[in-house]
Amino acid sequence: MMKLQHLKGVQHMLLDLKNNELIFSEVGDMASFRDDLRSNKDVKFREYLQKFYVSLADFDAIRSVLSKKHKGGINFTDTYQRFANKFVLSQGDVKIIWNTTVCEIEGPNIPWHEIIPKTSYFNKAAKRSRTYGKSWSGYVHLFNPIKGEFPSGLLERVIQALTKNGTSFTIDQTFSYPKPYFHLSPSFSFEPTKDQINSVAALEKSNTGIAKLPTGFGKTSYVAASLIQKKGVRSLFLANQKILTNDARKDFEAVFAGNDISLGFIGDGVFEPGDITVASIQTIAASLKEPNEKERELVEYQIGLAEQRLNLARDNEHKKQAKKEIKKHTARLRGIDARIERHKRVIPFLKEVDLFIVDEAQVLGTEQWNAFLHACPAPYRYTLSATPTRTDGGAIQIIAATGEMRFESFASEQIEKGRLAEFTGHFRKFDHKMEKDVVKDLNIEYHQAYDIFIVHNEKRNDHLCDKVIEWARDYYVLALVTRKAHGEIVKKMLIEKGMNEEDVHYIDGDTNEKKREKIITSFRNCEFPVLIGTSVFDVGFNVKNASKMVRFNAGSSEVREPQRAGRTVRKRLDDTVGETYDMIDTNCPYFESQAWKRLSLLREEFGSERVKFHSGIIEGELNVIGLQEIVSSIPEKTDRAKGEEIIKTLQYVNDDFEEEEDDTEDYNLDDLSPNLKRILDQLTVK
Question: Mean per-residue pLDDT for 416-438?
């Protein structure tokens, strides 16, 4: 392409490149250019604020359009010119420089129609963004065509695309894989299964990659430990929850007991690396951020002021307050100094690491993880997870960090092989007696709906509590909630229904750490039958005795659902079947579709024959209090007729009218119950 030349009959425009899209602006004849784009069926585009957006994936197709009619009439931004210099104007073979974290690439004839889809994903949250479909396509791109960079974990995909297209290329690998310099002798307390051995072999052979391993497979106690032993290099095991780091540390201490190496730990205010280090990603990421010197100066200033107040204090009360201030700010100063010291040590430590293992893949792709990946040049890079995906659709972020899938196993397979306990998932319909479309018309927000239909739904809670009590007579039961208030409601209801207070305990993220650990340990030791909890059950929660789980909450995370149910399938000596109990919330906004998705996710992981949909409906009732809350949340000016229709629908559903008998002409305001009348009166006539 040429710089802009004012040629007779040539339409002029400006071409830019941003977010992997070609952006055409300053187009002289919008209608004509729009027709030019439409004439090529291979080119998809959108139009916003007098600009045309075309994906870089359509680069070759759009060039054919431009070369026919617009050659010589296009001006380029500096950004586009940088791209063109690397990929349009360059000569010879494509060259790839392979670093441990990022690959650099440049050269002609790049198959963008292959590269862009293989290095991008559609963000599921995009449709909630105001920019979606306008200045943003909704796609997240991991290939940077301006810098010519992409994460090294995607190298295999890029090579595949180049090879498929017949594009010649060379690769310059800038690092080497070190040979073992630690000679370790692990001691396992069990005989590894064939699948465990094969998973380690697949990962070891590839040097990088992902293993999808179901809960109870032995990710840390065998797979991670075996990889560390076989590679024999300085290793780092990373997790994003304290319970995972604590369990990993205990596993490695047991497996490598007697070996002449040091086991280190980073997290919870501790920075003590070793030959094998277990670390919290939060602490690593925080250490990578250089502390603000002004922050330290401010604290020193505050200490100085407090010391002056102490010297000038005339009574004990003022002296006491001043001393308290000095103590508080001095502690802050020690914390800042500790952060400064950790920051000085973290980069040298990460550069010495030759192998890292990420526990729970769904956490990858965030800012803190990207900071770590760019700071740690370890050539051996692995991810172990029961659910190597992300809720936003960005599973490719996991591949970008550590490479492609090398080994995959589902819970259903491990159950059939006897590695995990047998499992049954139970789903029953719960009829909320609400019309979904009606509630949607009122635009009720998700958090309001959750409070009304899930947290404060007495009939739903009552039924689920009965199931907990039934199972708790013979088994150990996990009761899963999302909100703290819900956990307290469930605990109170179980006790009111006859359970002893000492037999029911509740923990969440706000529970005191020592208390939480004490409760979990007591539950593991079978000292009480029912443990209610929030997200603490989601990842890495190992309570082998818990064979039953009752779901009080809603939601449908493809990451969390298999992991939650997986709490029940760890192998037990008595071969107790793992079971979960859940509700399909019918006639309910948001939550019905979530419930069907939960059922689908469990069938995918555990096998469709193990997840049962039971006939028979649990009857709910019209939630009048909830309805009052809905009405109070709607706009002040509401169509009276619409309000009457809403109330009519709810009233008929509550009174078990058959659908064919729901006739508007027979509707009579005098037939309304007093509660519904009062609610209707709150609606303001336009």
Answer: 85
Alpha helix (H) ranges present in 458-544? 458-472, 484-496, 513-524
Tell me the C-alpha distance between 297 and 511, whole Å: 35
In angstroms, the CA 564 to CA 423 distance is 13
Is there a domain that residue 449 lies in? Answer: yes
Residues 83 and 99 reside in one and the same domain: no
In the chain, the amino acid numbered 173 is Q
Q: Characterize 237-250 residue by residue with b for buried, 16 or more Cβ atoms within 10 angstroms of its Cβ, and e for exposed.
A: bbbbbebbbbbbbe
- Tell whether pTM > 0.85: no
Residue 530 within a domain: yes
Helix axes 640-654, 674-681, angle to 10 degrees: 160
* Strands of the 45-48 sheet, one edge to the other: 45-48, 51-55, 21-25, 13-18, 74-76
Residue ending a domain, among 46, 70, 87, is 87
Q: How far is the C-alpha of 281 from the C-alpha of 237, rounded, in Å?
A: 10
Q: Count of CB atoms within 10 A of residue 172's CB?
A: 11
Determine how β-strand 263-267 pairs with β-strand 276-280. parallel
Q: How many folded domains does the chain comprise?
A: 6
The residue type of 486 is H
Alpha helices in 166-238 (DSSP H): 194-206, 225-231
Q: In Å, what is the CA distance from 326 to each residue of 312, 315, 319, 361?
A: 14, 17, 11, 43
Segment 3-58, tens digit of pLDDT: 433 334 455 789 999 999 999 999 988 998 899 889 888 889 999 999 999 999 99
SS3 15: strand
The Cα–Cα gap between 449 and 440 comes to 10
Q: How many CB atoms sit inside 10 A of residue 534's CB?
A: 20
**How many of the other CB atoms lie within 10 Å of CB of 446?**
11
What's the pLDDT score for residue 440?
58
Average pLDDT over residues 230-235: 98
Q: Which residues contact 320 (CB under 8 A, 6 or more apart)?
A: none
d(C-alpha 559, C-alpha 385), whole Å: 10
Name the domain boundary from 34, 62, 87.
87
Tell me how far apart the terminal alpha carbons of the chain are, to the nearest angstrom: 61
In a domain, 182, yes or no: no
Q: Are 146 and 420 in contact (CB under 8 A)?
A: no
What average pLDDT does the chain have? 85
Count of beta carbons in the 10 Å neighbourhood of residue 348: 9
Contact (CB, 8 A) for 471 and 540: no
> Which tokens belong to 278?
């277990």
What are the Cα distances from residue 30, in Å, to 37, 483, 595? 11, 53, 48
* Residue-wise pLDDT tens digits, 508-555: 877 887 888 899 889 989 999 999 988 666 655 677 888 999 999 998
pLDDT at 97 over 60: yes
> What's the rounded Cα separation, in Å, for the pair 564 and 566?
5
Domain that holds residue 332: 293-340
Cβ(143)–Cβ(115) below 8 Å: yes
Under DSSP, is residue 119 helix (H, G, I), strand (E, B) or coil?
Answer: coil
CA distances 497 to 74, 458, 466, 526, 583, Å, are 77, 13, 8, 22, 20
Same domain, 280 and 298: no
- CA pair distance 442, 635, nearest whole angstrom: 9
Considering the domain architecture, whether residues 138 and 169 belong to the same structural domain is answered as yes
One domain for residues 514 and 442: yes
Longest CA–CA span in the chain (Å) reads 91
Token code pair at residue 385: 């997870």
396 and 311 share a domain? no
Hey, what are 58's tokens? 């359509």
Rounded CA separation 48/57 (Å):
19
Contact 168, 217 (CB under 8 A): no
Domain membership flag for residue 349: no
What was the pLDDT predicted at 73? 77
Q: Is residue 50 located within the same domain as residue 113?
A: no
